[in-house]
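How it folds:
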Amino acid sequence: MKKYYILLSILFFSCQDISQSPEINFETNPQISQIGFPINHSIIVDNLGELYTINHVAWEDSSFWLKDSTKVIITQSNIDTMNNSILFNYEIAFWDTGKVVIPPHYVSISFPDSISPSVFKTDSSEVFITSVFDSTMTTVISDKPLKEIKFPIERLRLFLTLLLIVAILYFIYLLKTRNSQKFTKRRFFNSNPMSKALKDVDKIDLDLSVKEFYDQIIEILRKYFYNNFYIISYEMTSMELKNFFKDDELNMLLDEIDQVKFAKKSPSKSEKKDILELLKKVIRKLL
């Protein structure tokens, strides 16, 4: 009979399910605190077994407590893995008074014998935050008086004011002493191109070599065109100048210059005088 009792005991204990399902628990301590003092919020997942993988850890979307870092700051967080369990520990500081709700916390874990991961979720936790003044205080220490800050620029205020006054007086002096006649008599480089060109023609020496003589003629003519008609005469060819002005006497003068330049023509002194007169005529005519 004793033998049967032993067999039944073995069978009874072997049929018992000693395995326990994983579970998640949390604790918030303390639940009443002051502004700036950290609150410990710990979360533990038990009965995980020896083989598991942590996939994802997150807070439930709760924009009303984590959106503003001036009100809620997670000062510290860590994860400890132990035998068959995981511990999540958070230190949270609040910077606003009143009731604050800590949202649920999610943990996603995969097990070797499971195809899809298991998700564990905590409930929300309420915390009440008070100000730094407690009920035993009967007097409030007054704030220190505001101290006026003197910046270095203020020490130079008088100097800068005097400098500004001197600058204004000097500007007024310049306005009063300005001689308007000097500006009316001022002549710019192209104020009278024809007169300048005719004076330059009179300065040409007939005893110059043929090359120097015609070089001066070309320079006077192109400078006159440049200052009077505002064309890029220095870069234009003789044919382009002819097409632009369409003047017979100018064409004759340009042909004469080209003959000396390309055909090596050597004019006499009288021919040089005639060319200078033709140049003056062209200058007066094309004005």
